[in-house]
Design brief:
The complex is a heterodimer of chains A (about 425) and B (about 375). With about 425 residues, chain A is α+β, with helices and mostly antiparallel strands. Chain A has 15 helices and 10 strands. In chain A, the strands form 2 sheets. Chain A has an 8-stranded antiparallel sheet. A two-stranded antiparallel ribbon of chain A has the order 6-7. In chain A, α10 crosses α13. The termini of chain A are far apart. Chain B contains 13 helices and 10 strands. Chain B has an 8-stranded antiparallel sheet. A two-stranded antiparallel sheet of chain B has the order 6-7. The chains are: A alpha+beta (about 425), B alpha+beta (about 375). At the A-B interface, α2, α3, α7 and α10 of A face α1, α5 and α8 of B.
Chain lengths: ~425, ~375
């Protein structure tokens, strides 16, 4: 095959080419063999990084804020060991300019090494997103010892349900933006095999998205477990919906309190949940389940992606560290109408969402309240923060019910910068 | 010296063909019908000089299983060489899509508008508007599924300079998608000229909407009868149109305009991609050959409800669409009627079929209006 393609000849000085490119692309015609497209190597020379630098003038995301022409020039031609590029990391941020008020991240990792090879972009993005956390100088604490949790039982007149979620990636396999079909199927195989080893209250069943019966699908929908092909352009522009629904599926235990999504936005998303206010038990099951799954994959020579600078490695930089979102659905009819509500949440380092999850509005007086932060504090610290915070919100609600006044708490300190 | 390969593809070669082969069990598109493990195995280790691989070619077809009744193509080219490097897949796809066209067949190009007979007398009481469109790819650049921002901008720059040099009936103006004023945008919408970011997953899954709207724009002449889209689904889409039934004039302007543009690109050593087997090279295999869709908006309320309407269209080598274009329904008995073929016959041949076929169908419509039968007018298969 290769014999039928002409080589691109450039007997001239590359500097001359680059200079002429700046003056207009007409000159390049003289140096191209008219009969073939540019071979990748020659293309790099004919198109300097400045010609490829994205137009980010209308953009508002962490990537656009951090990516300078100098950084782009340094990183454009680098490859991770799995041959993933910077352009692929940032495509989602180029395609989705963002919103004046909501700052999205705008870049994804294709593999564990992306965070290293493209550190000059990812480090400032991480700092921006995670309260000044500096991966070059700081370490992230991991703590999955649920016995340390105090006061983890909420007043169920207010808290309707409790939930903790995180993600885990399998070391050695590319992440959802980059993985080939074979890699994605390997992730499924590794995880499903491990989950089949869970016993007792964690024993469960796997439902492959492509093979489930209509009846199984309906049950999963009724249980609010089923995830669907991503429609958000934030995800589709990051190549995460390729080959859908190949190697995607849902596992859950028979009790329906421990759920794992396979090959959605991360290799795995792990969710522990229950109706009611027993956050301590939810977190206990979460930690126990995670530890057992980790043990089961290690038996077969696999491990999770983790390092002490970034904690658990996930596709989106916003989920680094613990990848943990611990939250409740809680009724706060009076407090939610108080003008100090947002400030109280901010100071407690909590965020509110509608009961449909991210990007939904609250219906009635019930809110999804969870931790804002992911990186720089451990799992135990973040869950305790949520417990303390939600208890405080409930106290405020009770005070307002009695006609008493409430106070805005002092802001919590994240970590020393 | 070996051609530069796509390194990520090398990484994938660690896995076996069984592990990588897509699940096409629920699929109905040309690619899925033709791709076997054997073909995939032969092609997966290859890449074009610019690094396009078989997985890139087929991604859109893997992600869009298709429809039980509509047969989509399911694969795209990333550059001119794709059609050569991946011929074991694309030749049978082309054959399937283009009526048995063989790898050894030659395609005839004829843009001499004087060869068209008639076409200036379609009844304007029935034929509301006439239009001819095609696409062109510019040599030396990779195609929309694969090109970088730098390449796309270079294509835009080259196109602007080429179009700016046109004069007379072709004098016009370029409107970049990123930078037009609100007033300009509204005017382009009102004229039905504006194209928007693709939403069809057939296109987005093939990577054609990347970096939108960078490098995209619309050029049209002052008379609003000749229009060029830059960097949408192909490098260039060229459209000649006007109200009424004078297809001859529309085709004349189409041919003359295209040839003027081609001369300018050639002068800059960036002629159009073309070869004698596949004609004009475009992103989607369905548009190879002439890439030409010549058609009219025509009122056929009676004929369109006649039992033999579909058969008549098939015999005339024509297809119908709604007045919104592909995938739309007809409104008020008005149909978009155009040539079905692209490859294996020339531009003149295809427009001739439209001219002759529409003329016949209008006569049939008139007969049906008078309550007469059209059985004697049903044509033989063209």
């Amino acid at each position: 095959m290769s014999g039928s393609f002409r080589r691109l000849i450039s007997g001239r000085n590359t500097a001359v080419l680059l200079a002429s490119l700046g003056a207009g692309t007409m000159a390049t015609g003289a140096f191209l063999n008219e009969n073939s497209s540019l071979a990748a190597e020659t293309k790099r020379k004919l198109y300097p990084p400045s010609s490829d630098f994205p137009d980010l003038r209308k953009h508002n995301n962490c990537m656009a804020a951090a990516l300078t022409p100098a950084v782009y020039a340094k990183l454009r031609d680098k490859l991770t060991p799995n041959n993933w590029t910077l352009d692929q990391c940032i495509q989602t941020g180029v395609d989705n300019p963002g919103h004046p008020f909501i700052k999205t991240v705008g870049c994804v990792a294709g593999d564990e090494e992306s965070y290293e090879v493209f550190a000059e972009l990812f480090d400032p993005v991480i700092k921006d997103r995670h309260n000044g956390y500096d991966p070059r100088t700081m370490t992230h604490p991991t703590d999955l010892d649920a016995s340390k949790i105090k006061h983890g039982m909420f007043d169920e007149n207010y808290v309707l349900s409790s939930r903790v979620r995180t993600g885990r990636s399998i070391r050695g396999l590319s992440l959802p933006p980059a993985c080939s079909r074979a890699e994605r199927r390997e992730v499924e195989r590794v995880v499903v095999t491990a989950l089949a080893g869970l016993k007792g209250d964690l024993a469960g069943h796997y439902y492959s998205l492509g093979d489930m019966t209509d009846k199984e699908q309906q049950q999963l929908i009724d249980d609010h477990f089923l995830f669907d092909k991503p429609v958000s352009p934030l995800l589709t522009c990051a190549f995460m919906a390729r080959d859908w629904p190949d190697a995607r599926g849902i596992w859950h235990n028979n009790d329906k309190t421990f759920l794992i999504w396979i090959n959605e936005e991360d290799h795995t998303r792990v969710i522990s949940m229950e109706k009611g206010g027993n956050m301590k038990r939810v977190f206990e099951r979460f930690c126990n389940g995670l530890k057992q799954v980790e043990h089961l994959i290690q038996e077969r020579g696999w491990e999770f992606m983790w390092n002490e600078r970034l904690g658990y490695i996930l596709t989106c930089p916003s989920n680094l560290g613990t990848g943990l979102r611990a939250g409740v659905h809680v009724r706060l009819p009076k407090l939610s109408k108080d003008p100090r509500f947002s400030k109280i949440l901010d100071n407690l380092r909590l965020q509110k969402r509608g009961t449909g999850g991210v990007d939904t509005a609250a219906t009635g007086d019930t809110f999804d309240i969870s931790n804002l932060d992911r990186l720089g504090k451990s799992e135990v610290e973040l869950v305790q923060l949520v417990i303390n915070g939600v208890n405080y919100l409930i106290e405020c609600e009770k005070k307002l019910e009695k006609g008493q006044d409430i106070t805005v708490p002092a802001p919590l300190v994240m970590f020393k910068k | 010296m070996a051609a530069m390969k796509n390194c990520h593809n090398d990484y994938k070669m660690k896995f076996s063909v069984d592990e990588e082969f897509p699940d096409l069990s629920k699929h109905n598109n040309h690619m899925a019908k033709i791709l076997t493990k054997d073909i995939y195995n032969k092609l997966r280790g290859k890449s074009t000089p610019s690094g396009f691989t078989v997985d890139d070619v087929i991604q859109t077809g893997v992600d869009n299983p298709g429809h039980p009744f509509i047969m989509t193509v399911g694969c795209v080219a990333g550059d001119e060489e794709s059609y050569e490097v991946f011929k074991e897949l694309l030749d049978p796809v082309i054959s399937d899509r283009h009526g048995g066209y063989k790898p050894t067949d030659k395609h005839k190009t004829d843009l001499n508008f004087e060869n068209l007979k008639g076409g200036d007398d379609l009844d304007p009481n029935y034929v509301l508007s006439s239009r001819v469109r095609t696409g062109r790819s510019i040599k030396g650049f990779t195609l929309p599924p694969h090109n970088s921002r730098g390449e796309r901008r270079a294509i835009e720059k080259l196109s602007i300079e080429a179009l700016a040099s046109l004069d007379g009936e072709f004098k016009g103006k370029y409107y970049p998608l990123n930078g037009m004023t609100d007033a300009e945008q509204e005017q382009l919408i009102a004229d039905h000229f504006l194209f928007d970011k693709p939403v069809s997953p057939l296109l987005t899954c093939a990577g054609m909407a990347r970096d939108w709207p960078d490098g995209r724009g619309i050029w049209h002449n002052d008379n609003k009868t000749f229009l060029v889209w830059v960097n949408e689904e192909d490098h260039l889409r060229v459209i000649s149109m006007q109200k009424g039934g004078n297809m001859k004039e529309v085709f004349r302007r189409f041919c003359v305009g295209l040839q003027k543009i081609e001369e300018i690109f050639k002068k800059h050593n960036h002629g159009f991609m073309w070869n004698e087997h596949l004609g004009y090279i475009l992103t989607c295999p369905s548009n190879l050959g002439t890439g030409l869709r010549g058609g009219v908006h025509v009122k056929l309320p009676k004929l369109s409800t006649h039992a033999k309407f579909e058969e008549i269209l098939t015999r005339l080598r024509l297809q119908k669409r709604g007045t919104g274009g592909v995938d739309t329904a007809s409104v008020g008995g008005v149909f978009d009627i155009s040539n079905a073929d692209r490859l294996g016959s020339s531009e003149v041949d295809q427009v001739q079929l439209v001219v002759d076929g529409v003329k016949l169908m209008v006569e049939m419509e008139k007969k049906l209006e008078k309550g007469e039968s059209i059985d004697g007018m049903i044509p033989a298969q063209k």
